[in-house]
Specification:
By secondary structure, the protein is mainly alpha-helical. It has 8 helices and 3 strands. The protein is globular and about 45 Å long. The termini are far apart. 31% of the residues are buried.
Length: 171
């Protein structure tokens, strides 16, 4: 059974539990780079099971999702209360040809956009971080909550990559 939006949110927020989302997000690209260092492209593009993403596909997803997250934060700050459209990540993976993307280039794109998004978030004052949009699937979502969800999203996908590669979490 697929988890509900509420279950998904709770799971991601639970991953962050007591951690600073800025710090979590600041170290993700470096952690991912360590995880894939020395791993062949063949291994990075191999799916662990049918209908499960490979490491390369996860990295492509992270890069595109970071682009979306940055847009959403900026959209909410520029137009509080606005509708924030969800998207079908599996469809994006197919149409975006995630399986054929270079994992190292996806990671570099992720790192670059992430740095810009962290800088943007840090530039916001507390009132701006409380501004919200209405997500089409998850409802009312503040910039602050969105930023925390992205930290949990990082942890979720880092754990997936560790499991696929059989590696422990690197600090």
């Amino acid at each position: 059974m697929q988890e509900t939006a509420e279950q998904y949110i709770n799971r991601l927020i639970g991953y962050v539990d007591g951690q600073d989302p800025v710090k979590v997000q600041s170290r993700t690209a470096r952690r991912l780079a360590k995880l894939i260092q020395g791993v062949s492209r063949t291994r990075l593009t191999r799916r662990p099971a049918p209908r499960k993403w490979s490491v390369a596909e996860i990295l492509a997803h992270l890069a595109e999702d970071e682009l979306v997250g940055g847009f959403r934060m900026r959209l909410i700050v520029g137009a509080p209360g606005t509708l924030v459209q969800g998207f079908d990540q599996d469809r994006w993976a197919v149409t975006g040809k995630y399986a054929k993307r270079d994992p190292k280039k996806s990671l570099e794109l992720f790192r670059t956009i992430r740095e810009a998004n962290i800088a943007f978030y840090k530039s916001l004052n507390p009132a701006q971080r409380k501004l919200y949009g209405i997500h089409s699937e998850r409802g009312k979502e503040s910039v602050e909550r969105l930023f925390t969800l992205f930290a949990g999203h990082d942890i979720n996908h880092t754990k997936q990559i560790e499991a696929i590669l059989g590696k422990r979490r690197t600090r």
